[in-house]
Amino acid sequence: MSEIKVLIVNGVARSGKDLFVDYLKEHNPHIEKHSTVGTIKSIAKEHFGWSGKKTFKDRKFLSDLKNLWTEYDDGPFLEIVNHVKLMEHGFLKDPDPILAVFVREPKEIQKIKDEFSDAIAVLVQRPGIEVPDNMADQNVEDFNYDYIIVNDSTLDEFKLTASTFHQLIEEKYAN
Fold first, then answer.
1. Which is the most buried residue in 8, 39, 65, 153, by most CB within 10 A?
2. To 10 degrees, the CA torsion angle through 46, 50, 56, 61?
3. Structural domain boundaries of the chain?
4. CB 112, CB 70: distance < 8 Å
């Protein structure tokens, strides 16, 4: 059974979270992404007619649905725990696995940090972005992150930042 590394990635909409993890995957192709709102998006499309757009209104709708699921049975958190268990039991057979979990809410981030003591929390910031009007986006700064990545330059420099960060976390997990 391999030890799963958990990387918590946060940032407001359009900050570059996905791109950052894509750049990390260039150094470790065994990084798997999991968004706590992914299941919510599927349900919203299938049962509520959500178009897949990401307007401020759409983002608020998804955020509100996720909050309801969290209040009901802590489903988004349990989904992450179960995903890690699947990876640990070899159903997802990657060597040197990292699960990059996209989570916005500070309380949810803390639950993950409490459950997985070696989890690393990263905030991706992109100055000048208008913050959507939903609780998830508005509260991303309300956590004490292990690392803050600033996406304020060229794509090549952002890629270099991801490369440097990858070396940093590999060293951290090697110790």
1. 8
2. -50
3. 5-174
4. no
Q: For 5-174, which CATH superfamily applies?
A: P-loop containing nucleotide triphosphate hydrolases (3.40.50.300)
C-alpha dist (Å) from residue 102 to 49, 154, 158, 171: 24, 23, 18, 22
Report the alpha-carbon distance of residue 24 to residue 31 in Å, rounded: 8
Distance in angstroms (rounded) separating the CA atoms of residues 64 and 70: 10
Residue with tokens 């996209």: 102
Share in percent of the chain as helix, strand, coil (round to 5)? 50, 15, 35
Taking the CB of residue 9, how many other CB atoms lie within 10 A of it?
27
CA distance 163 to 166: 5
Answer yes or no: pTM beyond 0.90. Answer: no
Can you tell me the mean pLDDT for 18-22?
Answer: 96
Percentage of residues of the chain with pLDDT beyond 70: 93
* Tokens 């699960």, located at residue: 99
